[in-house]
Amino acid sequence: MNVEEEIQKLEEEIHRLGSLQPDGSYKVTFGVLFNDDRCANIFEALVGTLRAAKKRKIVAFPGELLLQGVHDKVEITLRPPPPQAAAAVSS
């Protein structure tokens, strides 16, 4: 799986595990993602996928690197799609 495919899978998993926010974004904690069995089977390097998604401004979280245990309560935000993309999805 290439980076783009992994980021797409990450978005799907955040939708599945996270909670929808009023602004259209989704939030999930790192611990929920890291400890989920399905995510463990999909992602060889979850932290690397998160960093790639952050670099592309798809997700947001504080700091550069998340570590199991230490950062389990850190919220990861999947940003809402741009308005034109959201309109295309709803059509």
UniProtKB/TrEMBL annotation:
This is Costars domain-containing protein. GO terms for biological process: regulation of actin filament-based process. It comes from the Eukaryota. Belongs to the costars family. Residues 1-79 form the Costars domain. SMART domains: Costars. It comes from Thlaspi arvense (Field penny-cress).
